[in-house]
Amino acid sequence: MGLTKTALATVLAASLLAVSPADAAPCPDVPPPASGRTLTVGPGGQYATVQAAADAARPGDNVKIAAGTYTGGLTIKKSGAPGKYITFYGDGGAAVITGKNGLALNDRSWLRFTNVTVAGSSRFGVYAYQAHDLVFHKFGIDGSQDGGLVLLDTANAVIDGCDIRGTNARGTSADHEAMSLGEGSRDIEVKHCRVHDNGEEGIDVKYTENARISIHDNVSSNNRGPNIYVDSASGVEIYNNVASGTKNNTKAGIALAVEDYSETRKLDNVKVYNNVSYGNAQAGLSIWVESTGVVSNVQIINNTFYGNAQGALWFGGDEYAGVNILRNNIYAEGNFTHPAFTSDHNVAGDPGFVDPRAGDFHLKPGSVKAVDKGSATGAPAFDLDNRPRPAGAGHDIGAYEM
Known about the structure:
The protein is mainly beta. Helices cover 6% and strands 41% of the residues. The radius of gyration is 21 Å and the shape is elongated.
C-alpha cells in the first residue's frame, strides 16, 4: 500500500497549493518595510558580510542581501523595537548563510528573515532562546548536525513557507529536532512549510503548557519521525497537514506523547483535524506514555489514514482523562476504537478515494460510506483544501469535503 516517489511528489505539490486566500498572503510589510534605512550586502553593496550589516542595523532598518553565499554564520547582537522590525531579506534569489554556528538569536526580538537560507551548520541551523516577535518567511535550512529551527522559551513567532531538510545529521545523538518549539515557547504559527528528509522528528512541540501553537497547511515527510510530534504540551492545534513516509518503525506520521523528560507528565487539549497521514513506518497517528503521565482532552477529527505499516492508530499507555474523541476519521488500514475515547462516525477501509496510489485522497462522488455521513459535532468549518464544510447535505468523513 506504499506510494511511489512520483506519487509522493504529486501529493506534496497538491498540499502546498491547498491554501486559503487569507493564508496565501505574505507576512505584512515583508520585504521590505516602508520605513527605515536599507543596508545593502554583497557585490557593490555597503557591506561585504551579513554580519557587518547586522551589527550596523537599527530598529526599523532593512538588510538587503544580494543573492549568493555568505560565510561565517550570523549572530544577531541587536533587536528591533515594537513595530520596528529589523528585516533581513534576500534580493534576486536566496541569500545563503554558511558557518559552523548557523543563525544565533538568543534574547533577541522584532526580527524578520525572508528569502534567507542557513546551510551546513555544525550545530543548529537557527537557535533562539528567550527571544520574541520573530518572523521566518520563505526561510530555508539546508543541513545541520543538530536541530534545524530551534525556538526555546520564545514567544510570538510566525514560521511561514519555510523549507527545512537535512538536519540532525548527527543522528539520534543530535540535540533537538528539525523544528523544535519547546520549553515555554508560546503563541507560534507554523504554516505552508516543507519539513523533510531530516534525521529525527520533523515539527516538534514540547514541554509547554498553554502553548497556543498552531501547525497547519504543512507537508512533513520522510523524516526519521514522527513527522509531527507533540510531547507533554497543551493548547496545540494540528490541522490541514500531510504527514508521510517516516523511516523508523517506531515512529508515526503524527504522534502525541508524554516522555520521561517532561516535568508535568501530561499532554492536554490537543486537536488534530483535517490531516492526511499515510505511508509511515509505524502508525498514522500514535499516542503513548513513556512510563507515567496523563493524556487528556484530545480530539482526533476528520483525518484520513492510509497505508501506514502498523495501522491507522497506535496507542501505548493507559492513563487518560477528560473528554477524548475519535470522530469522522477514515481508517483505511482497518477499524479502530479505544475505551478512553468517544468513537463515532468513523469509516474503515477505502471508502472510495479518487486515486490513493497517486496520493489523491479526495472522495469520489459515489463514496456512500463517507460523503455526507459525518457528524457536525466538533467538525471543522473547512477541509484540507480550505473549502467550507459541509458542502452537501452533511459533513463528509475524512480530511476532504467532496
